[in-house]
Amino acid sequence: MSEHRSFTRIPFDADTSVSQDDENWAVELIDISLNGVLFKQPQNWKIHPGKPLMVCITIADRTQIKMEVNLVHITSEEAGCKCQHIDLDSITLLKRLIELNVGDDAFLERELSALIA
What is the pLDDT of residues 66-93, one digit of tens each? Predict the structure, then answer.
């Protein structure tokens, strides 16, 4: 079975943390899309499956992209999460980040439309 991704994933390196309840873990971001994130699983990571996680990505100028996500797949090394909620400031930053990496406004608009649908 082939896997089909609806959203462009861009490799991105930024200070990233994942939290759940009172726990917080620094993680290594692998890539990001309008629909979620993929990161290396941290050591001693103990989450409650089925409960949302908060991802915070700090950009070079100290602004942050924050999104509430659900874990959708996990391996021994990586965790993939789907975005469930993102605020307007964060989606604006993420859209700009993807624009800079994709370079095709029409393509990005199609992805945004798919995200809203």
Answer: 999 999 999 989 999 999 999 999 998 9
Q: How many domains does the chain have?
A: 1
Give the type of residue at 95: K
User: What is the C-alpha to C-alpha distance for residues 40 and 94, in angstroms, rounded to an integer?
Assistant: 20
Rounded distance between C-alpha atoms, residue 117 and residue 107, angstroms: 16
**pTM of the model as a whole:** 0.81
At 31, which CATH number?
A: 2.40.10.220
Provide the residue type at 32 as one letter: I
- What phi-psi label fits residue 53: left (phi over 0), alpha (psi between -120 and 50 degrees) or beta? beta
